[in-house]
Amino acid sequence: MKKKLLTLCLSVVMMGLTLVSCGTKAQDTTKTDGSLDKVKLQLKWLPQSQFMGFYVAAEKGYYKDAGIEIELLPGGSDIIPEQNVYNGAADIGVTWVSSLMTYQAQGYELQEIAQVFQKSGLLLASKKSSGINSPADLKGKKVANWFGGNEYEVLALLEKYKLNKDSDLKLVQQDYTMDQLKEGSVDAASAMTYNEFGLLLESGIKESDLNVINMNDEGVAMLEDCLFVNSEWASKNKDVVSRFLKATIKGWQEAVKNPEAAGKIVYEVDKSVSLEHQVYMAKEVAKLAAPEGFDSAKIGQIDMDAVKQTAKFLKLYNKDLAKDPVVDKTTFTSEYWDEATK
């Protein structure tokens, strides 16, 4: 999802913009100095604490210790991780599970290897003055969302409460600020816990003056940030993938343990937003990667029940899906995570 607050893209990503034809075969990882395997990781968006575990692992030397020379490729509005990984412009990518499933349904031989976020970060936020104390109160209101695949959880929420999206309320296009909610042109707006909700608080609105609807609490959550590979490339580079995951898990464990330090590391990469916001983001992202009560040793583990729920909602609400999502070992595998965590 695009974030307006991050507007600068690093020039290094330009190498990843040129896509070759879908028929191109994945290439083996090449050695750079006889001892380190070079791995390119394509992020979903620009440098921010959403990806803090990868930056921490790179900064702390965890990838190097695992025999890997890592290159973190920033994303952007015109960069599609699934295409870059499938075509070999990157080796491993970060994307949302619903997006990955959509490309898999189109015939892309891509495979999830780890689940970074265990919970959804999507909220519906409203001012208490709007009187939206529960999802049922969305009836007759203006509700904003970015669409483009971000609306599925909202649609599932409406169906749960038997609200017709066309007649019971008005769904409107949301921009990439929270201005519509602040100025009152919508009653409820979509917000990621680690970004837009923080922007509301930073604008001077008190949390006590807001109501939130949490998709996890409502049982309509869909999985977001995951790690995926071209399955052909991964099958030829099993040891590299496992070592990459081992270093990555260590980076995320460190970031979750000390999100303030992680936020500072990410801030130094780009400095496109304030240090305070990166630290806020890091603290909230930590709650998604390792929720309360979650064993940090299991960071990256794939919850297949949550994957199946994501597939269910994608099938219900993406009418343009090429075919039904496939959820099995060809599309979601714990093989590399199991090896990395032995």
From TrEMBL:
Location of the SsuA/THI5-like domain: 49-262
Keyword field: Iron, Metal-binding, Pyridoxal phosphate, Signal, Thiamine biosynthesis, Transferase
Annotated SUPFAM superfamilies: Periplasmic binding protein-like II (SSF53850)
GO biological process: thiamine biosynthetic process
Pathway: Cofactor biosynthesis; thiamine diphosphate biosynthesis
Any one Pfam family match given in the protein's UniProt record, by short name: NMT1
Signal sequence, renumbered to the chain: 1-26
Reaction(s) this enzyme catalyzes, per UniProt: N(6)-(pyridoxal phosphate)-L-lysyl-[4-amino-5-hydroxymethyl-2-methylpyrimidine phosphate synthase] + L-histidyl-[4-amino-5-hydroxymethyl-2-methylpyrimidine phosphate synthase] + 2 Fe(3+) + 4 H2O = L-lysyl-[4-amino-5-hydroxymethyl-2-methylpyrimidine phosphate synthase] + (2S)-2-amino-5-hydroxy-4-oxopentanoyl-[4-amino-5-hydroxymethyl-2-methylpyrimidine phosphate synthase] + 4-amino-2-methyl-5-(phosphooxymethyl)pyrimidine + 3-oxopropanoate + 2 Fe(2+) + 2 H(+)
GO molecular function: metal ion binding; transferase activity
Record text on subunit structure and interactions: Homodimer.
Biological role: Responsible for the formation of the pyrimidine heterocycle in the thiamine biosynthesis pathway. Catalyzes the formation of hydroxymethylpyrimidine phosphate (HMP-P) from histidine and pyridoxal phosphate (PLP). The protein uses PLP and the active site histidine to form HMP-P, generating an inactive enzyme. The enzyme can only undergo a single turnover, which suggests it is a suicide enzyme.
Assigned protein family: Belongs to the NMT1/THI5 family.
Protein name per UniProt: Thiamine pyrimidine synthase
